[in-house]
Each structure stands twice: as structure tokens, then as C-alpha cells.
Amino acid sequence: MDQEPTSPSYASAGVDEEREQDVFARAMRPWLARTRVRSPLVTSITGLASGYFATLMEIPPGPALALTTDGVGTKILLAREANRWEPIGIDCVANNVNDLVCVGAVPLALLDYVATDRIDEGVLEEVARGLYLGADLAGIAIPGGEIAQVGAMLADAAGGRLMLDLVGTAIGALPPGREPVDGSQVRSGDVIIGLPSSGLHSNGYSLARHVLFDVAGMTLADLVPGTARHLDDALLQPTRVYVRAAEALWEAGVTPRGLVHISGGGLLNLARLAADVSYELDALPPPPAVFRLIAEAGQVPAATMYATFNMGIGFCIIVPASKQQAAIIALKNAGEEPSRVGWVTGRSGRNVSIPSAGLRGHADVFEAVRDTV
Asked: pTM, whole model, 2 decimals?
């Protein structure tokens, strides 16, 4: 008897997030946690909360410095296939600065690391142009970096197009008088404001590629159904930079209680905030067409979609209900299209609920829930 085919999962596409977190906690974190700064210049280093977006380092009498590092992931494989490299330069900057602002820091600079199997001037110029465009949007400098020629280490390098990997490490600073933001001040009744993403940003591409190309047999030249966009344009759309949006809040006198970059882990990233509360996303906009295409082409369950992709919301801001209108005005003045997407409940456990999709999640997993009478 034939077995019914199973729906694609992130793990079946080659990314097992649950095992990654388990192995990190058991095999790596105990060693890394034992590292200590010996210099008396540094008074403290804190990750704020386990798995948080950026680390703060205190070096009195100056401001606390914020540090983060991130790459672009398998979106690079699409850039390689399409021979369009500028978007990943923007992504590299955006992924880092969007994490820095989550702790309340102002991004200052980024160093890039390019590992490549060969030197191609045209490709490297496109990557650099993308880095510049991202840096310009973020208001930061890129004063240096590294290019490493490591062809023997890069898969599929021989006989094909250039292969590279791109990673950035960014630094920011906490302005004088500004307290770090870690979500510990989030309270029941606070509102969640969402800012639109430009698409997948840089997350979930292993699953997207598996579904669209391996399962559905599509090509980058195909149109996204219901739109006039080709798949390469939709998938290579750069990650949005949210630095101006975050700073606009403080400039308007609105102190956010939580700032969340919706990256790997999707909307479950809200659970990274320190307060022992839960979040109900009762007003999410419909997912853009590219997400609907992935879900339908691979019959991917909503639980997997919302735990993998941003589903159209790239950044969340949590403020007291009394500050909702002021925050939305400030964000609109910064060129954003903000909308209230949910609220904070008094339930403990750091759960994230999406009633319209019938989902409740915790840690890295969403599960379908059924209301019972």
C-alpha cells in the first residue's frame, strides 16, 4: 500500500533547528559560557537573554557597545544561480543592524568576511555595492573586512560559477541615558506594532528552494502567481533595514518595551523577550503572495510556515497601549507602514498565538490548536 507523501519540513530541507539548539545548548554553550574578559577595561558583557539579538559590553566611561554577527545563508545559492550579487550585500548589513537595534543600540560600523573559491572582480564589486547600499540605509561605515580564497572548502565550486559565503560582524553603541531593551518591561495589555517585510528577507531559503525547485519544479524565470513578479525578483528582494524606524521612536519620545527582528524562527522570535508573558497576534495582515506560493506548492503546514518565515512582518515593536498612536505616527513619518498586529496577554510561558492560523507556539515550534467548548 502506497504511503501518503509527507509535507516538506525545514528539517527535510536540511535545516534541523530543534537539533541545532539542543546541540548548541549541550555541546557548545557550556564551553563558551566559561570564557572571561581579563582586561580591567571591560566591566561586564551580557547577552541580555539566551538567544537574544545582540550582546552588550560595558567599557566605562564610554557608552555600552553592542555586538552581533550574522550571514546571508543559502540565499547565496539563488544569487549564484541568477548571477545577481548586490542583494546579498544589503542582506548582510540588514541582518546585523536589525539585530543591533533590538537592544536599543545605534549601529556604527560593520566588518565583512567573504570566503570565495576564486577572485571575480565583477562579482566582488556587486557584493561591495550591496554592502554600500545597506550601510547607507543603516547610516554606518564599513571600515574593513577580509577576503579568503578557500576553494577547497566550498561545495560545488569546481567547474561552475563562483561560489562564496558572506558574513558580517557589526558594532553599535547605547546612547547616553538610554536603558538597554530586552523585553523585561513588557506588560500585559501592551500592543504589538508590525512593520512589513520586503519578502523572505534572508530566512527559510533551504525550505523555499526545496519546495519551489525540487518539489514544484519551478524556475527563477517563473511568475509568482497573482503577481507580475518573476520568482528571482521575489526571492532576491533584499532584507529591509529598520534602523531609521527604531530611532524614530526615541526621537518622538516613545520608549519601546520590546524590539524584535523577525528573522530565523519567524514570529516565534517574540518569545525571546525577557518578560514571562505571552503574545497574541490577532491582526496579522494576509501573507504576501510568495509565502502563499511556498505553502501551496509544497503543501507546507501553517505551523511550519510561521515558524520558518516572517510571513510579511519583518520587525515588531511593543509599546504601552497609551503610546500606540504616537508610535505609529513616528513610524509613518520615518517612511514605514506600521500596523497593530497583536497584544500582550497576562499568560505566562512566552507563548505566541496566531488565532487566524489556529496556531500556538513556544520556543522553536508552532502547533495547531483547537478551541474546545
From this structure: 0.90
Q: Is 371 helix (H, G, I), strand (E, B) or coil?
A: coil
Q: What is the maximal distance between C-alpha atoms in the chain?
A: 72
**Residue closest to 238 by CA, chosen among 331, 110, 129, 155:** 129
The answer to whether the CB of 190 falls within 8 A of the CB of 322 is no
Grid cell for residue 251? 526621537
| In the block, residue with C-alpha cell 521575489 | 234
pLDDT digit string, tens, across residues 270-322: 999 999 999 999 999 999 999 999 999 999 999 999 999 999 999 999 999 99
- List the end-to-end C-alpha distance of the chain, in Å, as a whole number: 38
Residues 66-86 have a mean pLDDT of: 96
Alpha carbon distance 235, 181 (integer Å): 32
Picking from 170, 193, 236, the residue whose alpha carbon sits closest to that of residue 332 is: 193
Output the nine-digit C-alpha cell for 308. Answer: 520558518
* Orientation angle between helical segments 324-333 and 243-251, nearest 10 degrees: 130
Alpha-carbon dihedral angle through residues 20, 25, 30, 34, given to the nearest 10 degrees: 80
